[in-house]
Amino acid sequence: MNEPKAHQVSPIGLPVVEHWAATSLSLTPDDATILPRGRDVNKDPDPTLDSPSRHGQLRLDGRAGNARRAEISPRSRVTRVSTSADRRTLSGRVTRSQVSAEATGDTLTTFVDAFCGAGGLTLGLSEAGWLPTLAFDKWSDAIATHTENLPGHPALAADITNSRQVSAALAKLEDRPDWIVGGPPCQGYSTVGKRIREDERNRLFLAYRDLVKFVAPPGFVLENVLGLRDMSFVDAVKSAFTEAGYHVTAMVLRAADYGVPQLRRRVVFVGHREDRFFAGPRRTHDEHSYVSVDDAIGDLPPVEPGTEATRYSLRPTTAFQKDMRRESQVIQGHRAVKHPERLIEAISHIPDGGNRLHIPDHLQPTSGFHNSYSRLASWKPAVAVTQNMAKPSGTRCIHPRQDRGLTTREGARLQSFPDRFHFSGGAVSQRLQVANAVPPLLAETLGRALEDPARWLSDDPGVSLIPER
Q: What average pLDDT does range 292-311 have in this prediction?
């Protein structure tokens, strides 16, 4: 058997494995156990992965009668992308970082995106110069969006809890990726919605862990909304990956600190097999330089409830607006939901940044929460972009000056998706894709920091609330 061979050295001093192949995977209803080829799942349920075989066997349900072989070609890892087509990311674009990597002969960092959704994480990491090799998600609309906007790699509809679908997706890989990235659906962890500690979605990270153990990349990233940390899952997640051989750090990142016009925070776990710990990305913005709602969407044409605009009518006035409009000729998703006349009249009394307390008593809505029927403050970042962005009854999602909820495009801007990134599916699906996504600008900053040797420490920094500048 040929053992994996260390050949090159990564930007943080880690050996790069040149060849790899699948080991055996046996899934049970509750968990998935990784077995080197020839092991018995019943006799040895938790072996190590020190010597994976070059052409392993995927045991899909533990029954020999259903066993089948999945082979992955042991080609050399990509050290330089040979053609422009191989490096194409957003709508066929080649990122500046990837062009620089090819010019200097540097090795591109490869990654697989699980729970990829519409592609916010893939887009951001691609802009940081990383090379996506595979993405998958069980949500067909999100995969359609991902494929349309990020066509340079396979994006497949696959459920991470379905071993047959995952093995079919992994068969698309030619080499072991440097990283696996992704995060489970956010609803089970959300601090906005009702949190249930026993929600089955709160254990999907175990399926993600098993994918990481199976593929055994040098590193992984797992992200989710802040509720995961509130629910005391940090220690459980860290332990799950520590047992798999990774050195894991957890941090809470506020999107606005990295140029995203939104205050929502996300928990990020980073693990690596090297005996080093990730310190997190440095802040690029603070409360004095945050990108505000007006900075982000002030150039989009006004639309009345029930109407749509597809052409720009105003000039961009901020660097963020100019960046969002780069290479875009039309505006997709800028349609406002139609509201009842009584609701329009009610919210017309709310000033910029105000709330339902400004609505006269005879127009007061009879439902909603304390932060429902509230306008965004034009001079601040948005609080959080949710799937209810179009509904004035949602969480502070009324336009600062127009008497309506947000359009999908406005929500996408507040998530830092550029206008050239178009969403597939119906209006409700598109809003959910936007809300569930990792902000691309946050992902880009994270990707650059992961490549920076100065951001790796010899000791575990513990749970970092937000790394300092």
A: 98
One of 186, 226, 432, 442 is an active-site residue; which one? 186
What tokens were used for 99? Answer: 């062009």
Domain definitions of the chain by residue range: 20-73, 88-286+440-457
**Pick the residue with more confidence: 130 or 238?**
130
Which architecture characterizes domain 88-286+440-457 according to CATH? 3-Layer(aba) Sandwich (3.40)
Annotation marks residue 116 as catalytic: no
Write down the pLDDT at residue 109: 96
Alpha-helix runs per DSSP H in 175-226? 204-215
Residue 335: beta bridge partners? 308
What is the rounded CA–CA span in Å between residue 133 and residue 113? 8
Question: CA-CA distance, 410 to 398, in Å (whole number)?
Answer: 11
Q: Tell me the per-residue pLDDT of 99-155, one tens digit each, with 9 for 90 and over.
A: 444 544 568 999 999 999 999 999 999 999 999 999 999 999 999 999 999 999 999
Question: Residue 6: beta bridge partners?
Answer: 17
Contact 30, 40 (CB under 8 A): no
SS3 343: helix
Q: How many CB atoms lie within 10 A of CB 455?
A: 20
The C-alpha atoms of residue 250 and residue 230 are separated, in whole angstroms, by 13
Pairing, β 456-457 against β 155-157? unpaired
Kindly provide the b/e burial profile for residues 265-301, where b requires at least 16 CB atoms within 10 angstroms of the residue's own CB: bbbbbbbbbeebbbbbbbbebeeeebbbbbbbbbbbe
